[in-house]
Description:
Layout: H1 9-16, E1 24-26, H2 27-33, H3 39-51, E2 55-59, E3 62-65, H4 71-81, E4 85-86, H5 88-94, E5 104-109, E6 114-117, E7 122-127, E8 135-138, E9 141-144, H6 146-155, H7 163-173, H8 179-189, H9 192-209, H10 215-222, E10 229-230, E11 239-241, E12 246-248, H11 252-255
Parallel strand pairs: 5-7, 10-12
Antiparallel strand pairs: 1-3, 2-3, 4-5, 6-7, 8-9, 11-12
Helix pairs in contact: 5-6, 6-8, 7-9, 9-10
Amino acid sequence: MKIKNYLTKQEQMIFENIHPSKTTITSTDIATLFPNIPKQRLNEIINSLKNKKYITQLKKGVYEVIRNKTNIDYFKTALSIYPGYISFLSALRHYDLIDYEPTTIFVATTNKSKEITNKEYLYKYINIKKVFSNYILDNDVFVSSLEKTIFDCFYKPQHSGGYSVISKALFDSCEKINWNELIKIYEKYSTNRQYQITGYILDLLKKKTNSNIPNKIITHFYSKPKSKTKLLNNNNKSKFVSKWNLQNNLGEKEILSWWY
Length: 260
């Protein structure tokens, strides 16, 4: 962002003393950095920095520092507002499993689901308290492990780009996935329906793209109980896949649209 507003000497002193690694700062941080500046004057400077677009208020007392930023910076900003870990479509981006920049950043949290917007991004916090687990610290941000990312995407496909995006991510990452770890996560947290849908898409990938998914993994998913279910919760025309007891009301070509 090119900033044309000039800073006063005090404003410049404060802005330049915000550490380059910081993507957010609080009014308490600023007061700690400059204990000799009266509180009222600090508030005036903070308001001026806001008006000149050097910082943006995220919530009371918390400000985003406007610099040329990377995905990691935006992820840090998201996690500084509410705790959790980067997940769903954002985790796929973190692992370079999608090739575009989503304008929504998804955070898995145990807090209430909510959305916060600024001029560049929508920060979307999704409560997944029942399955909140298996995250790692990578590049100073908490993000779901690759295996938990796959699980979370099937758990909430509406926040993960849909089954076409998920199937492409599986295809691109199948050599990197620790399949035993993925099974452990599914054994602990998955519903039978999620087992069915994941197994069906793994099976479809193996048959149509010859991807290197171990046969024992598909066999494991197939071994779980299966009740008749739909891929999507709608009444679209569907094809019944008897092996998986599943109505595919999305279509194979739509699931594998990136392949055809």
